[in-house]
Amino acid sequence: QPPSSPKDEL
Amino acid sequence: MNIFRLTGDLSHLAAIIILLLKIWKTRSCAGISGKSQILFALVFTTRYLDLLTSFISFYNTIMKLIYIGCAYATVYLIYMKFKATYDGNHDSFRLEFLVVPVGGLACLVNHDFSFLEILWTFSIYLESVAILPQLFMISKTGEAETITTHYLFFLGLYRALYLFNWIWRFYFEGFFDMIAIVAGVVQTILYCDFFYLYVTKVLKGKKLSLPA
Q: What transmembrane ranges does the database entry give (chain B) (predicted)?
């Protein structure tokens, strides 16, 4: 399940 | 990671470097809104606190440190080193009109009412309007240096590319975040007027001056 919010994004 | 996010990050990095070099080389921040740069420093500070709590990748960590470092260096150059060239009279946008509503909205509309999540949400909403003082300043002075328009172009392009990144991630990873997407759409829309002037004027070798 991908993270709920794009914390892997800048 | 996908091509849209990578080119988006590189476009963002290019914008930040272009601005820093412009101020450093010309030893002047004429035409630059210090208030927008304060907002960007606030955006990165509130969004990248997770540097202290989680490690995602070297790329992620290094880029965050570069963004934060450049943001504060730019604010320092504007308000300290080259303060004499700062055009405070035209940089008159009231920051509280942005920070207060954005802060309230971040508390009302978020994914999770936790400290880091609220700050992240605040940074997403704030980033979408952080360029307003700069665009407001250009509308007041009626013109912008060509190098400043290149800065704005890459800055606007980065979030537009992120929109494609989110389409890509939705299609291939079944992932999407409504808060980031809505704020990203708003942010990109705010640049549309500038993009039009940039393409019709600057790319034709003319100076960007208003009224169009």
A: 65-82, 119-139, 151-172, 178-199
Question: Angle CA(B97)–CA(B179)–CA(B96) in degrees, nearest 5?
Answer: 10
What is the residue extent of each domain of chain B?
Answer: 3-200
Residue B56's contacts (CB-CB under 8 Å, 6 or more residues apart) are A7, A8
Q: What count of other Cβ atoms lies within 10 Å of the Cβ of residue B40?
A: 26
B164 in Cβ contact with B170 (< 8 Å)? no
Torsion of CA B13, B17, B19, B22, to 10 degrees: -160
Query: Which of the residues B67, B116, B177, B182 would you substitute to probe the A interface, choosing the one with the greatest number of A C-beta atoms within 10 Å?
Result: B177
User: Quick check: ipTM above 0.85?
Assistant: yes
- Bridge partner list, B143: B209
CB contact under 8 A, A6 and B180: yes
What residues of chain A, 1 to 10, have a C-beta less than 8 Å from chain B? 2-10
**Mean pLDDT per 10-residue section of chain B, whose length is 212 residues:** 97 98 97 98 97 95 98 98 98 98 98 95 98 97 96 98 97 93 98 96 93 64
Residue B150 CA, distance from chain mean position: 13
Distance in angstroms (rounded) separating the CA atoms of residues B75 and B66: 14
B47 in Cβ contact with B63 (< 8 Å) = no
